[in-house]
Amino acid sequence: MPGFMNPAEFANIARCEQDFWWYRGMREILFRFLDPHIEGRKFAHVLEAGCGTGYFSHLLQTGRQWPVVPTDISADGLAYARTMGVERAVQSNICSLPFASGAFDLVLSIDVLPHLPPGMDGQAAAEFARVLSPGGLALIRTSALDILRSRHSAFARERQRFTRRRLIGLAESAGLRVRRCTYINSLLLPVALFKFRAWEPLLRRPAASGIQPVAPWLDRLLYSALAVESRWIAAGRGFPAGQSLLLLGEKT
User: Fold this and answer.
1) How far apart are CA 16 and CA 213, in angstroms?
2) Chain-centre distance of CA 224, in angstroms?
3) What is the pTM of this model?
4) Phi and psi, residue 142, nearest 5°
5) Mean pLDDT of all residues in the chain?
6) Secondary structure letter of residue 205 according to DSSP
7) Residue 184: which CATH number?
8) 167 domain-assigned
9) Domains identified in the chain, total number
10) 11 with 212: CB under 8 angstroms?
């Protein structure tokens, strides 16, 4: 079954996602965003819709002991998941999930919607809502702002990016009540704008993955910006713009 993302990117992700500054920082922001809303809740069934290599599901299964069902359309990603011992992995299209309505208490969609052709994002959001039980939560992270499209976007086959208004509209159209939505990865936005709109066009190099190890000092510096953001997010604050978006919706 063909996937939506460039299959060559899975090797880059698998090599870097445990230690690379972006993955570590974005996971910290995600948990600081989510945890206040799930305090005291126990999940019987969790779905990661579009699990990629399965590493995030692996963290949730082993670190939080959540009963996560990881699913992805790509056999390439699921091969990595099975190698690391991820349990219950299922190959499926998130626009037509093979699960019963109301089967999950929590649905996670991490950086999947940008890889769907425009229009299919609505089908995916509707499926997230369908498989959620009443009162269940959907956590969606997605790339933001078309002006930030890059060589990496082209290489990974990113087909669309979102604004906060558009993502909220997508969730609400699917029947989810939005509990919180904010831009993230915001402090590095000026650097990203310079790189993607000035430096990359000047170099005119072909599309290539941006997931590449950097010098340890630079990794620490870039991570520190996301660590600061995570504390800001934990305090209940948000950002007016950023390179990504986080949304938490509840099935009413």
Assistant:
1) 7
2) 20
3) 0.96
4) -150, 160
5) 95
6) P
7) 3.40.50.150
8) yes
9) 1
10) no
